[in-house]
Amino acid sequence: MPSAHVDRFVIDHLPGPDALPRFVFEGPGLQFPPQLNVARSLLLRHRGTAQGARPCVLGTAPDGTPIAWTYDELAGGAARVAHVLVHGLGLVPGERVLLRGANSPMLAACWFGIVMAGGIVVGTMPLLRARELAGIVDKARVRVALCDARLQDELRAAMAQAPTLQALRCFNTGDLEAAMADAPDAPDAPDAFEPVDTAADDPVLIAFTSGTTGQPKAAVHLHRDLMAAAACWPVHVLRAGPDHRAIGSPPLAFTFGLGGLLVFPLAAGGSTVLLEKATPDALPAAIAAHRATVCYTSPTAYRAMAPQLAGHDLSSLRQCVSAGEALPAATRTLWRQASGIEIIDGIGSTEMFHIFISAREDQARGGATGYAVPGYEAAVLGDDGQPLPPGQVGRLAVRGPTGCRYLDDARQAGYVQHGWNLTGDAYLVDPADGQFVYQARTDDMIISGGYNIAGPEVEAALLLHPAVAECGVVGKPDEARGMVVAAFVVLKPGHVGDAAMAAALQDFVKQTIAPYKYPRELLFRSSLPRTETGKLQRFRLKQEAAGSA
Ligand code: 3UK
Fold first, then answer.
1. Cα pseudo-dihedral 186, 84, 199, 188, rounded to 10
2. CA-proximal residue: ligand 1, atom 2 (nearest)
3. Is the pTM of this model over 0.90?
4. Whole-Å CA distances, 58 to 111, 113, 285, 291
5. Spatial CA neighbour of 425 closest among 383, 394, 388, 379
6. From the alpha carbon of 456, which atom of ligand 1 is closest?
7. Residue 128 in contact with residue 147, Cβ under 8 Å?
8. How far apart are CA 41 and CA 45, in angstroms?
9. What pLDDT score does 228 carry?
10. Whose CA is nearest to atom 28 of ligand 1?
11. What DSSP state is assigned to residue 143?
12. How far is the CA of 27 from the centre of ligand 1 (A)?
């Protein structure tokens, strides 16, 4: 299949065939033509049709005016961005374009503009600082950036440290809109850019892992990967259709957000609400205002939102998706009681692009993630790489139409072994119903006095106590036991973190799960360290526990 990439930097730095996982294309929607451009598949093929006139992206402009673009309007905006990139900045197919901004319709237009121009999108989280941005620019060898005007300072600072980055256009009251308005009429009409005829297996994006430890890894995904992901989980688990209107918190730079809030709603012919601010106190009002039907956010955000639903009309909301971290059974119950909706949990990863184990509402069960999504296979492997019988804890392995391809990184051999993608998670298969049950990140398993203890199970128990708002459980080095279980607890307002409360919580855990798992150490905090994607930063808690001798 002829690649359209003129700049071959990414293609030339992909892992060799032996280092790749085994890709499996079995099932409906998983056969692809040789040439494929996701901007055409998701957007441009609708131009001038009834679908082209349907609502596509909604949001609010920086000055507060509501935005509601149709498919054709988003395609027009993207075409103008593509014009600026190609005719203004000299972008060639295969070049990387760094994209920086909070979620907004304009961010989506930029995303599609880069893709139409044959570029490779390098999404970055809004909170990243100059140092981290410079690392990304360097790794992905980025020359061109599109940035929200309000976030440009850190990127300009990064330019000083990363000399490959030379061209910057700012949007949302910046110079990009002006350049778009001037987009030259020739050789194409300004809003009719012909997307570059990329190969289905040309790279389309580089997603940097949130990197809780060490250098972030750069996961590459192809045009085909996005369409393949759209043919699996959204079709079989979510069952998305044209009435689907997505909303939620994950940034488009995080593949959880890119899939859930952009690629999947458009692949279903539905619409999406892209909010700059989607915190738990802002989301319920936004769901009501935009009549969203499906919400994507993290377990912690569902827990924080549950008591804030009163007074909001959530009658449009039909589905809620949780990912990023394990969903504790207590949070599932709390949300069902508050909203009437059974959460769809799903484990995905940056490397796999999106969710590969999940359960529909009618299969959902507290404490379990679900079944392999149709299109994917999953197994729990022992240390010898062989599948373990149900009930035994081992390493989660998956394969399907998407998989891990790090850009120039020896850690490829850690994620991909024997053709499987190893996510770094410890799982077991429930012998009773065959569901995959999350235990912990493999390197977070706590081994105490010869017992294996999974922190998230202790967290799930603590969260059942009415005084607990949030908690994190890690191992603390201990001379006698190797490690002991240490819990960091945030209490709900009105509760006091004293010795009596600590004893009460320890007792509560002993009553709820096997007593040897109770936290011998219990520390009260006013908040817990989290990443921008909502994940608990366990390594920080571990450091803190280790220091609190
Ligand atoms: C953990 C979960 C238990 C797990 C992601 C959906 O989180 C995403 O990608 P990341 O690369 O992290 C991957 C790791 O996060 N995890 C994610 N979801 C769950 N653990 N239950 C879950 N439901 O350790 C996994 O290996 O940041 C999630 C879609 C796209 C994504 N990128």
1. -10
2. 325
3. yes
4. 15, 17, 15, 11
5. 394
6. 3
7. no
8. 6
9. 98
10. 348
11. -
12. 24
Q: Choose the weakest-confidence range: 37-46, 187-196, 413-422, 470-479.
A: 187-196
User: Which CA distances in Å does 254 have to 261, 274, 430?
Assistant: 10, 14, 30
Atom of ligand 1 nearest to the CA of 349: 9
Residue of 347, 354, 373 with the most ligand 1 atoms within 8 Å of its CB, for mutation = 347
Residue minimizing CA distance to atom 10 of ligand 1: 349
How do beta strands 120-124 and 203-208 pair? parallel
Give the residues surrounding ligand 1 with Cβ less than 6 Å away.
Answer: 209-210, 254-256, 323-327, 345-350, 354-355, 369, 423-425, 438, 441, 533
Task: Calculate how far, in angstroms, residue 326's C-alpha sits from the geometric centre of ligand 1.
Answer: 8
Are the C-beta atoms of 38 and 228 separated by less than 8 Å?
no
Is the model's pLDDT at 183 over the cut of 80? no
Number of the ligand 1 atom closest to the C-alpha atom of 346: 23
pLDDT at site 186: 47
Q: Enter the tokens of residue 420.
A: 């499987």
Q: What percent of the chain has pLDDT over 70?
A: 97
Ligand 1 center–CA 14 separation, angstroms: 23
pLDDT band at 507; cut points 50, 70, 90: very high
Beta-carbon contacts of residue 97 (< 8 Å; ≥ 6 apart): 85, 91, 114, 119, 120, 121, 122, 142, 144, 145, 146
Rounded distance, CA 407 to CA 469, Å?
Answer: 39
Instruction: Determine if residue 88 is left, alpha or beta; phi over 0 gives left, psi from -120 to 50 gives alpha, anything else beta.
Output: alpha
CA distance 355 to 250: 14
Here the tokens at position 242 are 């044209």
Q: Residue 534: pLDDT band by 50, 70, 90 thresholds?
A: confident
